[in-house]
Write a structure and sequence with these properties.
The chain is an alpha/beta fold. Helices cover 51% and strands 11% of the residues. The chain has a five-stranded parallel β-sheet, sandwiched between helices. One of its GO terms (molecular function) is dTMP kinase activity. Pfam families: Thymidylate_kin (PF02223). This is Thymidylate kinase.
Length: 235
């Protein structure tokens, strides 16, 4: 199974993915874990990171350009993911294609002025139905051959809570300085909404939503591990 954990920056995805990995290992389930973007190993991801920190001129202004860089990062390991899946591993992914879809839809809403005075609460259209969402799916799952996940987990939290966590993380670790997306409060609000719409519509595969504000990481990890084991038909 390929399982993607999605959510805005500061939602707690990495913490939950690590907890689920440990829970599955304790149940003797073969598991592999990978996080995107792969800033330490991928040239496309490194270029995207530089753009997000204002080091690539106006590259960050291109919604499709940034989305393509993130997609190419996944393309680099698409065959590896398929092989691990074929070998029987449960693959836990911290971010995946839905991140590209959610952020691109949110950025497009901003660009098109559908939000009155850039207010995320004023958007009427369903972000999950934006043309760019289908474009991302065609690019990644179609042209680039990125495998479709079997399950997507939305680590759901309000944008304000996620922002507080991201700021705290930045203060505690200078290497985790927030980028152009993370410091845009309106964008984060829109992205939370886009994620929730994608989950509601079971975009591209089944979704499972967990309330990250509960703070019970161990219980959430057990809940997700139970779900995975039921799908695998193992104890």
């Amino acid at each position: 199974m390929i399982i993607a954990f999605e959510g805005v920056d500061g939602a707690g995805k990495n913490t939950l993915v690590t907890a689920v990995e440990q829970e599955l290992i304790s149940r003797e389930v073969a598991v592999a874990k990978l996080g995107f973007p792969r800033y330490e190993h991928s040239i496309p991801a490194q270029l995207a990171q530089s753009a997000l920190h204002q080091k690539m001129g106006d590259l960050t202004e291109s919604i499709h350009g940034m989305a393509t860089l993130f997609a190419l990062d996944r393309h680099d390991v698409a065959d590896d993911l398929s092989e691990l899946d074929g070998d029987g591993y449960v693959i836990l992914l911290d971010r995946y294609t839905a991140s590209n879809a959610a952020y691109s839809a949110a950025r497009s809403a901003q660009r098109e002025g559908t939000a009155s005075e850039s207010s995320a609460t004023a958007v009427d259209a369903r972000l999950s139905e934006h043309d760019v969402v289908n474009w991302v799916a065609s690019l990644e799952f179609g042209m680039l051959g990125v495998p479709v996940p079997d399950l997507q987990v939305l680590v759901d939290v309000d944008a304000e809570v996620a922002a507080e966590r991201a700021v705290k993380r930045e203060l505690g670790d200078a290497s985790r300085a927030r980028d152009a997306y993370e410091t845009d409060d309106d964008l984060q609000q829109l992205t939370v909404r886009a994620y929730r719409e994608l989950a509601q519509s079971n975009w591209r595969s089944p979704w499972h939503v967990v309330d990250a504000a509960r703070g019970e990481t161990r219980l959430l990890a057990e809940e997700i591990a139970d779900l995975i084991c039921r799908e695998l038909k193992v104890d």
